[in-house]
Amino acid sequence: MSPGLADLRRLDRRWIFLAVGLLVVMPLITGFHIAPVRPSARARGFYDAIERVPPGSTVLVAGDYDPGTIAENYPMHLAATRHLMSRNVKIVAVELYPGGPPLADRVLHLAGEEYHKREGYDYVNLGYKSGNEVVMSQMGSSIPRTFPVDRRNVPVAQLPVMKGVENFSQIALLVSVSAGYPGTKEWVQQVVSRYHVPMVAGVTAVSAPEYYPYLQAGQLQGLLGGMAGAAEYEALVKQPGLAMRGMDAQSLAHVFIALMIILGNLAALPQRRGERK
Amino acid sequence: MRREIPLLISMVTGIFVLVGFFVPHPAIRTLYDDIQQWVIIVVAFTYVLGMANVLRINWTQVSRRERDWPYKIVLIVGVVATMVIGFSEGTHYLDDGSKFSWIYNTFYSAMAATMFSLLAFFIASAAFRAFRVRTVEAFLLAIAAFVLMLGRVPIGSLIHPILPEAADWLMEIPQNAAKRGILMGAALGVMATGFRIILGIERTYGSEGGS
Amino acid sequence: MLFLLLALLFPQRGLAFPLRAVDTPNDGGGRVTLSWQAQPTPPESWQVLRAAPGQPMVPIDTIGGALTTYTDENGLRNGTAYQYRLVALPGAVALASDPSLPAVPGASWFDLTKINVAVVLAVFFALVLYYIGQSERGKVWRFRTIAGLNAIEEAIGRSTEMGKGVLYVPGVQDIDDIQTIASMIILGNVARMTAKYETPLYVPANSPAVYTVADEVVKGAYTDAGRADAYRADQVRYITSEQFAYVAAVNGMMLRERPAANLLLGAFFAESLLLAETGHETGAIQIAGTANVHQLPFFVVACDYTLIGEEYYAASAYLSKDSRLLGSLKASDTIKILLVITILLATLLLTFGYSGLGEFFATQ
Question: Which domain range does residue A7 map to?
Fold first, then answer.
């Protein structure tokens, strides 16, 4: 038996952990860049849909996620908000996850400061409401009746940004940033199918393939899947952020895992030869 | 009788909820919606039992000085402190700046994110330890894994431009087909399990077992 | 307002169009659906007017001009006839629909859009009853061996020989999830085995409802096995409902108690690999089962045996060998064959232009 391969079989997994840790941390600390992010057609669809929204229109942004998926959903949420604000589009934000409002506030305030937008005039966070699909359905009748006050308890009737916004007829685009249920699928079923509002979605990587049929059917104009999708979108809006920095770390980690599969099988070779004998 | 009553309740409510799925008439639907609310209320009461269980078991381990008992004290203090703070803040417990949300963001969110990030390390060690290519199927799985892992990240397009397209094709066609097959089978399993419980054939979940 | 009044009093000929109002079908009542043809030059918006019996038309809503349907669910009473009209807003030329015929909202007793589900359920129910009848008449079927299920008793035996316990993790969903219910059923079978072999059993529950049900199941199983004295109240414990806190606690139990067998049976999400890898480090034999497709790859790689999808739901029938449960398993297999035939037939028919069969089975 080759001594190298025998040692490999006995490799303490903490060396593997150390290698993963270094490979992930190094690009984040040093900022070195491995490969350019090439936007996919799905990310381009997302970008183009926002580009088509006329300045001055109102867009509904549904931030249906909580801190559990912040790594994947937050970068795409922030990039989409920045893109909308850069085009002087008004934003009405809602959340169907109880943990969602503070994250939406963070995104809106951060982007709002960058683009000199004012809460109540250029954007509003209507906050969280329980009820899942029922909330979506009620918004189809009347958004102000469903959310009579915003997250700061200010009556929406007093907010300039909500003037003339009654239901989905006044919404130019629905942007869904979703971690699961309730989320993108429910918005498609309850809103796109009934009110024909254009919609784009940013979802977690593991759930992205579930939404390909909606993309193919035209019910979604664009789709961002996980941090990779968020990075592609950041590349399109030319605002590198958290996702693009993370992609270099993720690239190295993926290559390392592929290498581990090969090494693991090489290390098992002597054992299998022994079994055959 | 002790065995029959729960089975009867399961059967009646199960059949009623099944019928309620098809009948939108308020005569049925009102009670159907109410039953869903009752479930939420019953589950809420079970939290009292659950909390009592947590405190009882951990306090017993502390009093007996069992292994790692100091950590049990940390747990008990954490539970009690969080509950007291949460109750004292009332309906504003999730507002920005509240003590409860500080505890949640500083302790729980950080620790949950840490646990989640362990996955990256465990995936690497599992890939080394357990992903053995011993059969043709395992070989095909390994090839698909390489294509997907490399095609999903920017370095893949640097290695070869076909990798991202191949990764997309794998996810959209073979993966979706296999997943739908598994989901269909699982859905039939769900139907079968539900029917067995409604008909009272499956009794193990209830008290006194099912033999 | 004046313009609207003029439009109502003096609708211009040639700019009126028919408006259809019907009771919204397949609902609980209180809704009327309007539909109309798209106009060559749609207005900016439509004002919807409604008249109750003996009342004048009053505006009830304003909707987008591009729409061609509208559902009124604003305070309608079942059994009362309502009439509707649409008026364009604003417009240089008055554009309004003819008043619709009266529509009477009412509640439906059966949602016809779900008839396809009802048909499949009825066929399945009939098959279950048929095969249970056959099993009670002594018919025996052969089912393929599922290695993971056979390994459960072996794993418990191994734990007994080693003097260690069995850890049973029922997943991270609440009791209303069918996977958790199936897990409770399997737990009953497992608890009977551990009672028989006097093997310690640890069941960490992620929700209080699961804890109460699991506790009753284990207690009942020990009583059934004639070992009520061996049951201990701390075998089943509630940990926490938070996903990663639960995983941390279960990992701690694995590392402290060092069970010889880990049974991970239920609904799992991101924590599946964390549990499986930690369990492997302790040297335990691991049997996992879930219907969450996205976690199956992790279990397949990290566990000794994995029950995939319906194998997991079949576990109670396999473990108990109850003839009626096996009969229901046979019914599942039969309906699966029927569904595969239907899919192939519908695909073939669709290829030749007939979409009826496929459309019958289409859901929302």
Answer: 3-32+248-276
